[in-house]
Amino acid sequence: MKMSTISFCRLLSVSVRPLPPKSQFRSRTGGVRQRVVKNLILLGGSSGASALLSMLSTATNSRALNLTDFGTFILLQTSALLVAGIFSFATQQPIIKLGVRALEAGETEKFESFVGLGLLVDTASAVVATIVSLVLVSTLPALIGISAERISPAILVAASLLFQGYRTSEGIFRAFDRFDLIGFIQILSAAIQFLFALILWWYDAAFILYAVLAALVISLSSCLQLITALFLLRSNGMWPRLRYISAKSSERSEFMTYCWSTSVMGTCDTIRGFGDSPLVGALVSVEAVGIYNVAKQLAGILRKGTAIYASVLFPELASMAAAGRFLEAKRTLHKAVAVSLAITVVAVIGSVLVGSPVLTLVFGPRFAAGSTVLTLLTLAAGLQLVSASYSMLVQAFIGPIPLLYAYFLAASSFLLVAFIGLSNLGVWAMGLAQIAFVIALTAGCGLKLMRYTAQERLL
């Protein structure tokens, strides 16, 4: 045990005692472009590997289960994540903005207090999400198309919500600029899930074991991130504190404002990200859920790039906002948008040309019908890169509250198109709903930035 602890501390590459100087808390050497490129390579490589493993896991499950059971497996997973997302808080955001400020000022106790408060919020949200999910599964399983014989697996998946959503850990990694650890955990989690899927396929396992796999998908990465983040804190001579009352009331208020406002935005994004499959199950069929989700899995490779991009760029924009460098941030935004649009064009063309053959090859002939929705989802994922650029700039310079209006507009557009389209056009209408979400979000953020730019010119 002693040797394993030493090896783990070496992986974190920091000394346990004494406390390092404040300049060493974050390895933010070089310019913005160098740091962004370095972290993009780190997260891009690891996320690419984890996305490939996840796709192989989904392909294995799609061949091991019949279309109805595969659709049910997806429904259990996405419905649980929908409930979790509604009740979760993006605690990593205030850790990045307020915690990094405290670290750079050498106020480690304040940083520990912010981390403690974030973990307290994470734990409370996980408990509430678990209780709500268990109640829904026990009382309204037919709402999303779960049959009576699948209630026991659904309860197992719902209980796993207690071990997910500890997003404060992401803030700790990003505050210490340890994107390598995030990448390592992503690959490890995806590898374990793929290995488990192979074992279930090999032994022709009962469906209840696929519920265990769904629970692993939901909770494993979050648990590993939390444990590793706590080791990282301890290696820097720090530990979460719950004495957050000692912090300045303005900072405490700002922390809670970030929590509730990002929670509302997270709920809007969760409706788009995890509410799509339950809607397809309720308004179309359980079998359509399986077809939709394999297309979503392929388009998710590009969507994964959006998450990497946001993780890498937002800390840089937060630093620029703290220094008042708005013009530099706008130049960075314009370059990012140009690259994002180019990537979108290439991805959509590739989806049109090879989408159907890839679906057939990877998931089987039953899923070739998802080629149209694959193209639409690929376009939505590419446009999401653009919307992420605008939303991050709004959040960094203007604040989270103005971003709420843009997310309300986006979520409303998504639901309107989804309800009208699914009833009349079938499953591929959900692709149109995803596109409507990102276009509305981009438009809302663009209007906010135009007003902010005009005010900056008057100053």
SS elements, strand count: 0
Summed up, the helix count is 16
Which stretches are poorly predicted, pLDDT < 50 over at least 5 residues? 1-29
Which whole number gives the mean pLDDT? 82
Largest sheet features: none
Structure description:
This protein is mostly helical and 459 residues long. The chain folds into two domains: 28-247, no CATH class; 275-459, no CATH class. 81% of the residues lie in helices and 0% in strands. The protein has helices at residues 2-12, 32-64, 67-87, 92-104, 108-139, 151-159, 168-175, 179-202, 207-235, 249-274, 276-283, 286-323, 326-363, 371-397, 400-425, 429-458. Helix 11 (276-283) runs antiparallel to helix 12 (286-323) and helix 14 packs antiparallel against helix 15. The radius of gyration is 22 Å and the shape is globular. Mean pLDDT is 82; it is low at 1-29.
